[in-house]
Specification:
Its EC number is 1.1.1.22. Pfam families: UDPG_MGDP_dh, UDPG_MGDP_dh_C, UDPG_MGDP_dh_N. It comes from Zingiber officinale (Ginger). One of its GO terms (molecular function) is NAD binding. The protein has helices at about 10-20, 35-40, 55-60, 70-75, 105-115, 130-140, 165-170, 180-195, 210-240, 245-250, 270-285, 290-315, 345-355, 370-375, 395-400, 405-410, 425, 430-435, 455-460, 470-475, and strands spanning about 1-5, 25-30, 65-70, 80-85, 120-125, 150-155, 175, 205, 325-330, 360, 380, 390, 400-405, 415-420, 445, 460-465. The protein has 20 helices and 16 strands. The chain is elongated. The termini are far apart. It has 2 domains: about 1-200, NAD(P)-binding Rossmann-like Domain (Rossmann fold), CATH 3.40.50; about 220-475, NAD(P)-binding Rossmann-like Domain (Rossmann fold, 3-Layer(aba) Sandwich). The strands form 4 sheets. A 6-stranded parallel β-sheet has the order 3-2-1-4-5-6, sandwiched between helices. It has a 6-stranded parallel β-sheet with strand order 13-10-9-14-15-16, with helices on both faces. Strands 7-8 form a two-stranded parallel sheet. α1 (about 10-20) packs across α3 (about 55-60), α5 (about 105-115) packs parallel to α6 and α9 (about 210-240) packs across α11. The structure holds nicotinamide-adenine-dinucleotide and uridine-5'-diphosphate-glucose (UPG). The site of uridine-5'-diphosphate-glucose has 20 residues, from α9.
């Protein structure tokens, strides 16, 4: 059997590597239009940082796993074609800032239609709006040349940073297909691929539209949990309760469960924001305004939380950060990844730069080149009217941004340190050494509850931790909401 995956990104690469590992008799080709990405997949430095991935790629590459820019050849030879291209939020025109941009998806679908000469199972791996499978069928069968296409939805649930573990031991594999005999047969073929390593009771076959929608709903639910606990973090700060204790107490109820209850200064990443926007847009297109407003609130609380964090930083430091050096630890949207797409750190940086702070940013996996690119590119403001794009930093503001080679360099001479992602190394820093190298009073603003505030207070720091009881300094300062 031959499998081809269109899109060699954060999903296509790891997913296909694991299929190749677990199904040695299957030939897997991952194709992409990006020459640079494919070259990186064929090198010793993969285009994405993902723990454990390199070993699998190195084991399978050249055996039954290949990476190529020859999209036509591999698509035409394949029995199963996965579409795993990017489906970002539209930034222009109808549905800007809301709808999923299906440009890449359509181009992949058209390629399949153009080059196929044999029957194929076409699998939606990308996250797409519900009923996209219908459009896919139309594109493929418009001029089908007698070819039989079966369409399946097989959304991916891996999280970055734990992709390999998630793929090796998934909670579930979802296969959505049509309720026809051919549809059921196609679903069985894909099920047999996963059955090489996934227990049968974890492979769920459902209706095509349910599978497409389940992916958006799964992300919306996870993000909703974070926004819920983040909203409570604000109340904890106002009342002296501790959000970690509240989360533990609530999460112990087996009906609630403990996952995704870590309060933070806001969630980010390439998925949650764009998938909720897509869900909201679909609701609106179906006339469900109240339902759309309900889910939009998850994003509003996320924005509230990010801006609340920035206000805490500025107001604690005498309400002025002009010319003050602030160390920013962490730039990717979470630990164990170099991915900066929709990282919430950008919003904090922008907020501090608006108040004329000087930033020294360090992330173990984000290069200076990437950081500058992210900070200077235009960013969509989802909550404003269409075509509203903000240039994140002006050239003058860019002069206020520096990158550091490590956390100690970032904190040298700084007035404050913001901990903005949860890399393990940030837990283990020598905070006494950091304190000694900083201006006094020395502030730590922990946006992810990575450090023990009491230990840092004992060193001499003034500490703000999301949702934790405030120390006297922070408590005495009124913050505009
Ligand atoms: N990143 C994640 O953790 C994650 C997890 C689950 C689902 N998803 C979903 O999976 C999809 C892919 O996400 P990603 O993070 O891998 O995106 P990505 O941007 O990392 O990769 C997509 C790749 O597709 C390529 N591409 C675009 N159009 C193409 C075409 N016509 N022909 C060949 N290649 C083409 C791009 O060059 C790019 O390398 C998205 O729909 C996303 O929402 C992502
Ligand atoms: O308790 C928590 C858990 C996560 N986060 C933040 O939420 C964001 C997303 O984190 P995570 O879900 O771990 O990473 P993603 O790689 O974005 O994975 C999500 O998005 C993927 C793409 O759709 C899905 O496949 C995954 O199932 C889903 O978890 C990050 O900023 C995290 O720091 C919190 O603030 N608190």
């Amino acid at each position: 059997m031959k499998i081809c995956c269109i899109g060699a990104g954060y999903v296509g690469g790891p997913t296909m590597a694991v299929i190749a590992l677990k199904c040695p008799s299957v030939e897997v080709a991952v194709v992409d239009i990006s020459v640079k990405r494919i070259a990186a997949w064929n090198s010793n430095r993969l285009p994405i940082y993902e723990p454990g991935l390199y070993d699998i790629v190195a084991q399978c590459r050249g055996r039954n796993l290949s990476f190529s820019t020859d999209v036509e050849k591999h698509v035409s030879e394949a029995d199963i074609v996965f579409i795993s291209v990017n489906t970002p939020t539209k930034t222009f025109g109808l549905g800007a800032g809301k709808a999923a941009d299906l440009t890449y998806w359509e181009s992949a679908a058209r390629t399949i239609a153009d080059v196929s000469t044999s029957d194929k199972i076409v699998v939606e791996k990308s996250t797409v709006p519900v009923r996209t499978g219908e459009s896919l069928k139309k594109i493929l069968t418009h001029n089908s040349k007698g070819i039989n296409y079966q369409i399946l939805s097989n959304p991916e649930f891996l999280a970055e940073g734990t992709a390999v573990q998630d793929l090796l031991r998934p909670d579930r594999v979802l296969i959505g297909g049509l309720e026809t005999p051919e549809g059921k047969k196609a679903a069985q073929v894909l099920k047999d691929v996963y059955a090489h390593w996934v227990p049968e009771d974890r492979i769920i076959t459902i209706n095509l539209w349910s599978a497409e929608l389940s992916k958006l709903v799964a992300n919306a639910y996870l993000a909703q949990r974070i926004s819920s606990i983040n909203s409570i973090s604000a109340l904890c700060e106002a009342t002296g309760a501790d959000v970690s204790e509240v989360a533990r107490a609530v999460g112990k109820d087996s009906r609630v469960g403990p996952m995704y209850l870590n309060a933070s200064f806001g969630f980010g990443g390439s998925a949650f924001i764009k998938d909720i926007l897509s869900l909201v847009y679909i609701c609106k297109c179906n006339g469900l305004t109240d339902v759309a407003e309900y889910w939009k609130q998850v994003l509003k609380i996320n924005d509230f939380q990010k801006s609340r964090f920035v206000k805490r930083v500025i107001s604690s430091m005498f309400n002025t950060v002009v010319g003050k050096k602030i160390a920013v630890l962490g730039f990717a949207f979470k630990k164990d990844t170099g991915d900066t797409r929709d990282t919430p750190v950008i919003d904090v940086c922008k907020g501090l730069l608006d108040d004329k702070a000087t930033l020294s940013i360090y992330d173990p996996q984000v290069s200076e080149e990437q950081l500058i690119y992210d900070l200077t590119m235009q960013k969509l403001d989802w909550d404003r009217s269409s075509s509203n794009q903000l240039l994140i930093l002006s050239p003058t503001e860019m002069k206020q941004v520096h990158t550091a080679r490590n956390a100690y360099e970032a904190a040298e001479g700084a007035h404050g340190v913001c901990i903005l992602n949860d890399w393990d190394e940030f837990r283990e820093l020598d905070y006494r050494k950091i304190y000694e190298a900083m201006c006094k009073p020395a502030f730590i603003f922990d946006g992810r509850n990575v450090v023990d505030p009491e230990k840092l207070r004992a060193i001499g720091f003034i500490v703000y931790s999301i949702g934790k009881p405030l120390d006297a300094w922070v408590k005495s300062i009124a913050v505009a909401v």
